[in-house]
Please model this.
Amino acid sequence: NLFRFQEMMARQLRKQLQTHRYGFIYQRMSVSNYVGVQLSREFNLPLILEYNGSEVWAQSNWGVAFKHQAALAAEEVSLKHAHLVVTVSEVLRDELVSRGVAPERVVNYPNCIDPEVFHPDRFTVEQQQGLKRKLGLDPDSRLAVFVGTFGPWHGVEVLAQAVRELALNSADWLKKHKLHFVIVGDGLRMPMVREILSDERCKPFCTLTGLVPQAEAPLYMGAAELLLSPHVPNADGTRFFGSPTKLFEYMAMGKPIIASDLEQIGQVLSHSLRVEDLPLEKPSQNESRISLLTPPGDVSRVVEGIRFLVDHPEWGTVLGRNVREETLRKYTWDRHVDAILDRLNSLTPTQGKNKNRFFTDEPRKAA
Model:
C-alpha cells in the first residue's frame, strides 16, 4: 500500500530531521506521496518539489489507471503547498501554472549531466574494444547506439524500423561501413522491437542487449560513433513534456547525435542540421551546429540521417565537438542546482543570499 509506504518514509525521515539541521526539504514527486508537505509543516522548512509529470496521467495513459482519486489528491496537495516546484521542461511549467501553481514558484531547467561521468575521453580504446568483444563484434565495428527504457515516448520502434529498412535494402552499405546497431535497454516496446527485427537479415547488423547496469551505460555511449534519440509524440495528442536524461548524456559524450525535433529536444538542439536540408559541402572551420534533427516518427528520415553521418564522418566529428561544448556551457548539474537555489533565495530574501546557508552538517541541538 502506497500510503503505508508514505508513513514509513515519514517516520524514518523524522528521525533524521530531529537530529540534524537542514535548510530545506527536497522531494521528487512520486505516486501518493505527500511526505514532503507533512514534514515541511512539522519542521518549518521550505519544501522543494521536483515534478517530472503527473504520475496519475502516466498510469492512465501508459499503465493501469488508478481506481481511486487519492493519488490525484496527493499530487494536488503537494503542488499547492510546496514553496518551490522544480520541473524540467516548458511544457511541464505551463501545465503546473494551469493547475494553479503560481509562476514565481516554478523553476524550469532541463535535466543535466555530470561532465566527468559522461566524458568522451573516459574510456580507453582497449575498454571500447573489450565491449565489442563482449557483444561478439569485430574490434573495428562502428557502433550506432540507443540507450533507453523502451517506453512509449522513446521511439525505439522507429529505430527498429530504420534498422530493418537498412538491413533489407542496404546490406552492402552496412557491410562496407562495418556499421552495427546496439540497442540497450528493455521495457514495454521490447516485444514490438523484437517482432520488427525478427527477419534473419536483420540479425547480423543489430544487437539487443537487454538491461545493463546503469554504471555501464557510459561505456556503451563512449564506444559509439553515432548516438540515436528517436523520441515520438504522446499518443493521446498532448504535448511531449519530457526532458530526456539520455539526450544530455549523449551530448556530453561528444558524439554525433540523430534526434527527433520534438518539444524540448528540438529546443535544446535547435542550432542543428535538419535532415530535410543536409549540406553538400564539408563543414567550415567556423561550423557551430550541434546535431542532426529528424521529424518525429519518420523512419525514412532517420535512415537518411544515419546514412549522411556515416558517409560524412567529418560532419560527425564537428557536431560531436560542438555539442559537448554546448553541454558544458549550459547543462551540468551545478548549473541546474544554481537555478534552484537562486529562486529559493528570491523567495526567502530575509535569510540572506548565501547559497551555502542551505547546507550544514551541524547536529540539531536538543530542545
Q: What stands out?
A: The chain has a mean pLDDT of 91. Residues 2-112+332-358 form a domain with the Rossmann fold fold (CATH 3.40.50.2000).
